[in-house]
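Q: Okay, next protein. This is fumarylacetoacetase from Acinetobacter rudis. I've checked the sequence twice, so it should be correct. Can you predict the 3D structure?
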Amino acid sequence: MDTSLTSFIEIATDSDFTLHNLPYGIFSERIDGPRRVGVALGEWVIDLAALEQGGLLGLETTTQYFSQPNLNAFIAAGKQQWSRVRRALQSLFSKDNPKLQQDHALLKKVLFAQAEVCLHLPIQVAGYTDFYSSKEHATNVGCMFRDPKNALLANWSELPVGYNGRASSVVVSGTEIIRPSGQIKAADQQRPTFAASQKLDFELETAFVVAKNTSLGQPVAIEQAWEHIFGMVLLNDWSARDIQQWEYVPLGPFNSKTFASAISPWIVTLEALEPFRTAGPQQAPQPLAYLQEDHQNNSFDINLSVEIIPVGETQADVICQTNFKYMYWSMAQQLTHHTVSGCNLQVGDLMGSGTISGAAPNAYGSLLELTWNNTKPLQLSHGKSRGFIEDGDSIVMKGYAEKDGIRVGFGEVRNQVLAALDFNFPVK
């Protein structure tokens, strides 16, 4: 890791978006304006379309990757092109390179204040899969809803459990989340009723973006899995716990999860995260051969947090602090298991980690765990408390990696909850 990398652009010491990071996103100057690819640097967005048109990115192709409304074409271009653009940007914005910093006319065309642009969903999401890979989270949920002595089902330690969700309802940070309605069955009632969810919850997750198409019937070997991952985002995989409890047997969640999955607007590349690799938890029993990794540092040391801003307040309460490195199953294992039956991958597939919880109570990645299903409501500032999320509340998730004075962060995924729609279904 080159700790000497310094930009001529002024960047705060606690900024997520350093010259070591350079995450990719999609922006426009107006909400309905033309969208193109940008990179975050400090408080700015670098317009890659402008640099591409000026021939400043060192790309040996006539393909226009960055005058695009999503990142899929650039992601599909492959690792060699990603690295070439990364090196070009680090050189162009280095304090030691006068080329761009002295060309004030070009700088005005290239730099836009993040606060003054609109950020959009960075990829066209081809498919969405959500895993269930935190041992602490799975154990907590098993204790709540099953026998605590048998909290984990027999298959959990043998394979990365997951399900295929809805790609169409993946949204970007800033999108307002309408409280979902559905069937809810009270314990003392014989039949369910239709109502708005009263147990709306967040799930603190990350997700990785698939970088290569594969052929139907051809699994991805664990040795090649990392080559199929472009980068990572923060993910709030919203969940309606009361709808889920009634519907998830026998086939898993449906309406309780399909209404929204929100991601951060910036994709942090694996290349930027490489210095923060670390070992994941010891796996016992040893996984089957196709899930065994040679790469010992198969996880990343990424600090994660969740804040809640109650309706009517401006002050945020930090209610969760955890770390990605606690995840039992790695991203490579998740990807390989996803394809082992022959399922093909597509560029832009999004794969969620599952709720990320640590061992300490303040490291639980959902309100279901933090409040133990509302039996222990959280005490917030201004005398307020929460069991689950109320209308008007905002949830903010943040994440960053830091080592040897170098910081690489994800920014945030922030959403406010709105009241459920009034369906006015007739009573029969």
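A: Here is a summary of the prediction. The radius of gyration is 22 Å. The longest helix spans residues 79-92.
Q: Noted. On to the next one.
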